[in-house]
Structures are given as C-alpha cells and as structure tokens.
Specification:
Layout (H helix, E strand, L loop, with lengths): L2 E6 L5 E6 L1 H8 L7 H9 L17 E3 L2 E5 L5 E6 L2 E7 L6 H10 L4 E6 L6 E9 L8 H22 L3 E3 L23 E2 L7 E2 L6 E3 L14 H4 L16 E3 L5 E3 L1 H6 L4 E2 L3 E8 L6 E7 L3 E3 L6 H31 L4
Parallel strand pairs: 8-12
Antiparallel strand pairs: 1-2, 1-3, 3-10, 4-5, 6-8, 6-9, 7-8, 7-11, 13-14, 15-18, 16-17
Length: 340
C-alpha cells in the first residue's frame, strides 16, 4: 500500500509522490528543518479552523490516504490503486486526555489502521481499513468512490460512539488539486495536512471492516448522530401507508391520527363561532386565531404520551444493550484475528 502526498511548488506546479505507511510515519515523527508544523500550531492556537490565509498554506503538503494517485495532464489526481482506507477527522475534543485520549479510544477498534495528531494540534486524524463484502477493493475510480461513501456512512457512527469529539468531513483547507474546493462530503479525494506526531497509533494488522455495498445512502439524512442522540433506533407515530391512519382536518391537510394520541387534544365544541382570540399553535409555535363555539361539547382526547413513556422506561437499557453488543462483536473480531 502506498499513500499519496501532494503539494504545489513555488511555481504553482503540482507535485505528486507516494510513500509506504511506515515511511510516512517516519516522516511525521520529526518536524522539518524550518519547524513548519510547530510554527503553524502556534498560529492555529489563536484562530478558528479556516487556515486558507496562512502564509505557508499554498505549498503545504497534503496526504491522500484512500488511494494511490497519479497526476493527469490537467493536474488532477487519478486513482491508480484503491487502498481501502477511510479518513475520519475528530475535533472539538472533550476527552480529558485530549488528542492522546482520542487515539486510545479508537485503538480498541480492530479496524483502526492509524491515528495521528493533526497539523493544527487540536484534532485527531483516524484512518480506518475497509473492504467490500467479498473482501475485495474496486479497480475503477467511480466504483471506489461509491464504496468510500458507503463505507463512511457505515463506519462513522461506530467511531463517533466511542470518541469524545466531533466528527468533521474533509480537510481544514481546500485540496491542492486544480479542480478542487473545500470538501464537505466523504470522498476518495479527502486529504489531511502534513502533520507532526512522534507517537502515532499504528496497526499494520488492522482488520478491514466489510462494507455492505447495497447500503441505502439516500437515507443518511435521517440518521441520528450518536454523539447528539445516543445509540438506539428511531420510533415514529407516522403511519407507513399512503392513506393508513390519516385524518383530513378542517384545513384540508392530512394528519396522522396517532399524533393526537401522543399529545392529546383541546376541548372541542360544535355549533357556530361566538368569539375568537389569538393563541400559539402547540404544533408549530406560530401565532394563530382560535375560536369558541356555542354548540354542545364534543369532548377531547387525553394525552397518552406513548413515545415519552417508552423513552423514559427503555432508552437507557436499549443504549446499554446496543453498546454491549457492539463491544462484544469487536472483541470477537479482534480475537479471531489474534489481536487480543
């Protein structure tokens, strides 16, 4: 496996080279003669993560771990070999031991290939091995790109669950490729800045996580972030059928009936309107006109709070069971590979 290193020279010419992972770790163990990373960390300590205007940024080396790349005639990178390496970057670290604590946390997962302190000294770069369900890697770049995106969706929740930090996609600055811009999407072309770490975590025998290539990436916007929502599953009061359990209200809008069973309804009367007043909608929070009617009472539905009660009674045990199952499966995989 060879990792790609890319940078622009002073004449703005794109230079591409490759190193084995072992050689790369030797390179980042010490700073260069100009103390470039050390000086950059002094600078980064006083600003946010937008480092585009740092004086050395135009010529800074960028590391592309996902594949071995070569330069084409338009100074774009084209894949030669897919490495099966996913890049994750964790920042806003809340672990009491900082970057070293994050490295220890990801080291318990057998698919962790490497964990490095980032160039700014405030984040951790995590490299994760993956493969497809047939234990093979794509040979064409479009297929490799698709597998990389699916791998990100399947792998990042596992790592987010064990790390006390926020997950960021992409690099602190735009890639050095001619056609690139700031990346906010998982991509084979995600890179990180050349860094300095005398004590990185490295596992040459990391177990590649098998990826289900039929995973539905279009549903990823509905997935909860484990850091924010915890591990668990989503329960909804919305019916799954097109017209099942649907009530047409007086405004002609379709509403699921179970919504009222969860929250309850106000007292209702029939007959003509006799007065009105402005109030706040319980569902939207917007100011709306409400009416009083002079006819007979039609009753109200009490609040059953099915979901609220279920969450209160079972959420803790569900999260505990899922985490224990995850930990057990990780340990089994590690023992099978002789890592424990």
């Amino acid at each position: 496996m060879k990792i790609t290193i890319v940078h622009n020279d002073n004449k703005k010419q794109l230079l591409v080279s490759t190193k084995t992972m072992e050689k790369l770790l030797e390179r980042i163990a010490k700073d260069d003669s100009k103390q470039s990373v050390t000086r950059f960390r002094d600078y980064a300590a006083y600003i946010d993560e937008d480092y585009r205007f740092y004086k050395d940024m135009p010529t800074w080396m960028h590391i592309y771990p996902a594949a071995e790349f070569a330069k084409d005639e338009n100074s774009n990178l084209k894949m030669k070999v897919c490495n099966g390496i996913l890049l994750l970057k964790f920042n806003n670290i809340t672990d009491p031991d900082g970057t070293e604590g994050v490295k220890r946390s990801v080291a318990i997962l057998p698919s962790t290939f490497a964990a490095l302190e980032s160039a700014d000294g405030k984040s951790v770069i995590v490299l994760v091995k993956f493969t497809n369900q047939n234990d093979k890697l794509p040979t064409s770049e479009p297929e490799a790109e698709q597998l990389y995106r699916i791998a990100y969706q399947q792998i990042h929740p596992i790592y987010q669950a064990v790390v006390k930090a926020s997950l960021t996609i992409g690099a602190q600055v735009a890639s050095v490729e001619a056609s690139s811009a700031m990346s906010n999407e998982p991509s084979l072309h995600n890179s990180f800045m050349m860094t300095l770490d005398a004590h990185p975590y490295y596992n040459a025998k990391a177990v590649a996580m098998r990826i289900d290539c039929h995973y539905r990436t279009e549903d990823t916007d509905q997935q909860a972030d484990p850091e924010a929502k915890g591990m668990g599953f989503m329960v909804s009061v919305k019916p799954h059928g097109r017209h099942k359990g649907i009530h047409l209200n007086r405004q002609g809008k379709e509403k699921p009936v179970l919504m009222w069973a969860e929250d309850g309804t106000r007292e209702r009367r029939a007959g003509r309107r006799i007065s009105s007043f402005f109030g706040k909608s319980r569902f939207t929070g917007k100011k709306i006109r409400q009416y009083l009617r002079g006819g007979p009472r039609r009753g109200k539905m009490k609040r059953y709070a099915y979901l609220a009660k279920t969450e209160q009674q079972t959420a803790g045990s569900v999260e505990t069971n899922l985490f224990n199952s995850l930990q057990s499966n990780i340990e089994k995989a590690a023992r099978k590979q002789g890592l424990l």
